[in-house]
Amino acid sequence: MRKHISQIASLLLLVALTALCATGAFAQKAAEKNADYKPLVAISASENGPCGAPLTYVNAVRRAGGIPVVIPMTDNQEQIAAVLNAVDMVVMTGGEDVDPLSGYGEEPLRALGEVVPFRDKFDLMLIKSAVEKGLPLLGICRGEQMLNVAMGGSLIQDIPSQVKESYVKHRQSAPSSFATHTATVVKGSLLAQILGTENIVVNSFHHQAVKDIAPGFEVIATSKDGIVEAIAKKGCDNILGLQFHPEGLIQSAENENFLNIFKYFVQKAKEYHLSK
Fold first, then answer.
1. Is 254 a catalytic residue?
2. Which pLDDT tens digit goes with each residue over 190-232?
3. Number of CB atoms found within 10 A of residue 168's CB
4. Domain 40-275 carries which CATH code?
5. Where are the domains of the chain?
6. 51, 247, 254, 256: which one is catalytic?
7. Are 179 and 199 in contact (CB under 8 A)?
């Protein structure tokens, strides 16, 4: 009888060990699969199309390890929600001026450039939905400005006519791969942590900029004449707005450090995916 019980106990122990090994092997395979996962990164479409986005954004996401997916413009909230359920991160691209009247309640100045009301609506819906959902979000140039407006801030409509003390050329003639002016990054800020420095040289293709910072956000980088170069959501490590174009800068080997911005956000996108 005792021998029989001992055999049964040995058999149960063997089964338990086999199950444990199987569980360990499964967990290891799952970990390996998660490590290899390439997050889906939504890139907002511009007016060019309206289903296209500049290849510099697409290439930057690819180089950082993500899979770029360009999101066509739409004002259909259900479609936007469906897209955001499928992706792991959002990149808001640069482009036209933001309409001040519908965006933040200001009359348009004579120096205001081209506006695209349908794109404004699409961008605002996409940003608000992504932030509410907790998706990592990177806004670039117009994308930073729209992020600020969507969250309750306002813009300088035209730097040359509104900011008399501004002396930096914010609309450069040089290629986007060439950095033309300096900027100072706030010590300890998200951007400083990503780039590992508080002094950067950036490119510049804008005449609008952040004016009143949105509630809950903070300015984390400025040019020498005080123009906002980066904003971030307070207490949040996955929402960042940049006035300059890192996707353009990384076309030059001299500016390779700016690829770390995309690498950082692709990693955040992966973490978001694994947390779902």
1. no
2. 999 999 999 999 999 999 999 999 999 999 999 999 999 999 9
3. 16
4. 3.40.50.880
5. 40-275
6. 247
7. no
